[in-house]
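Something for you to look into today, if you have time. What I am after is a single protein written out in full by you. I want to see for myself how the chain folds. Could you add the entry underneath, on a fresh line?
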Amino acid sequence: MRTPPSSPAGPPAAPLMGKAEWALLILLSVLWGGSFLFAKVAVTHVPPLVVVWLRVSLAAAILLALLPLFGVAIPRDGRFWRDVAIMGILNNLIPFTLIFWGQQEIGASLAGILNATTPLFTVLLAHFLTRDERMTGAKLAGIAIGIAGVTVMIGPDALKGLTGAGLAATLAQLAMLGAALSYGCANIFGRRFKARPPLAIAAGQLTMSTLIITPLVLTTQAPWTLPMPPLAAICAIIALAVLSTALGYVIFFRILNRAGATNMALVTFLVPPSAILLGVLILGESLAPRHLLGLFAIACGLAAIDGRALRWIGVRRPG
């Protein structure tokens, strides 16, 4: 799953969201929230790196086949392919590998919550790496609140010691934060693609991700020697590629074109509840009270960064 960057506080008013746009946004949140469910099922039976390989290669093939239907051509210049290769590493290979590795130890619900920290990293990185997205008081407060939420969730596991289940859970959760950090880097790097066809970028980065990871998988994992996974794992991997990745990208750019980036950022708030609901209903997962408290803190932090809630309050404030 890729969480889009949050909109900075104080942008021009976003286009109004109609019923169709809200339906697409909710569907996208289910597809991206469902990626944690599919990943949990897949990595139970298939090595994480092999799951990454199958996800990006299948999704790349689907998007490349869809490009003519959307009238999109992939640029052929070397700079484009260099940039999508870097984007593929930051936006696919690193985060997917960390998420799938971490989900061997933690559930889909907690993984979805920790992935919601992506906008926190994006805002922090943007302050240091860009000239036009500087830190504001609201953004700084949002980051502080979000970090407090993460601390509430991970702290108890970190205090259990440096061995056994406590260490494994801590490292898994840190892997999720590493994935969110990589997504944040991808969000910053992706600014250079403003003049490129968005769907071509998605197909290009997945293609380059496939080309980069294939030799690594073939030489280190020997996938042909692995036992045939159960049907549930096969279906989960197909769902990751077809639904959460290929279809997810198509819907993402459809909403982006129709409702704008500011409204698109709302999916950040909807993915964690989707991941939690699917994890609870299908996998029978449960969350500790500290996880829910951490989710609430992260949501408050994202709201502060997004700025709309504060502006609505300001608009309705009497006087």
Summary: The mean pLDDT is 87. The chain is about 75% helix and 0% strand. The radius of gyration is 19 Å. Residues 231-264 form the longest helix (34 residues).
